[in-house]
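pls ignore typos typing on phone
zinc ion + seq
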Amino acid sequence: MIRVPILMYHSVTDRPNDETKPHAVRPSDLAEQLSYLSESGFTPLTLGDLVARFNKNNGLSLPAKPIVVTFDDGYADFHSHALPLLERHNFPATVFLTSGWVSDAGKDAAGRPLDDMLSWGQAREAAQTGIEIGGHSHSHPQLDQLRTEDLRQELRRNKGLLEEKIGTPVATMAYPYGYSSARVRREVRKAGYFAACAVSNTIAADRHDMLAIPRLTVGKNTTINMFKRAVEGNAVPLIYMRERILTKGYAVVRRTRYGLQRVRGNV
Ligand SMILES: [Zn+2]
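k done
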């Protein structure tokens, strides 16, 4: 079994707002974490590249210590803070972009961005330096709670806009809030995605469903020692156990909620 840690970041800033604070990482912490990866012989890949290498039919092999670094939502600070640090190490990464939140989305604006977001030009510039731009829905809803028609719209509009504005095919995505269901994953596949990330705080392996790839959360309280234990993957780090149990329990609650809404005719 091949095991690959996939890291999930959000905003990278010393000045998060109340809404981005829970998941924001300080630039100095990201710098320390990336230096650790570099010094410890990790080879970062984009998610698309990893999934291609999981597919044994295409003859591509994996480096000795593969890892994937991902950033959700598309905050402007990815361009100002994260990108220079990634470039210093020559590390690729994947940014999951919510198309309706882009700062110059114009008539396509949708949903409510939590902070200053990337512009299309900044996303394109990142893509030109080896950053993979993946999908993250159009308006950042809880996908598992949407009617199927709205769900399809969210996925297709996001993929269509990213491909049009960035100019490269979009094959990967991450579920907003990590929420998915069998129905959501079916629609994601139909929309043309090959891989999608959730958040279950365990290390990804080639045995996992490629439409429910687990990631490890990195947040403001992740110390460098916790980070080392997580990426070295000797055991599921204790810090993640509580979150894993909560995530699993909540999935049951969410399925029940969607079922009840359907019975009542709301979905
Ligand atoms: Zn998100």
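The longest helix spans residues 238-264. The chain has one domain: 3-264. more later
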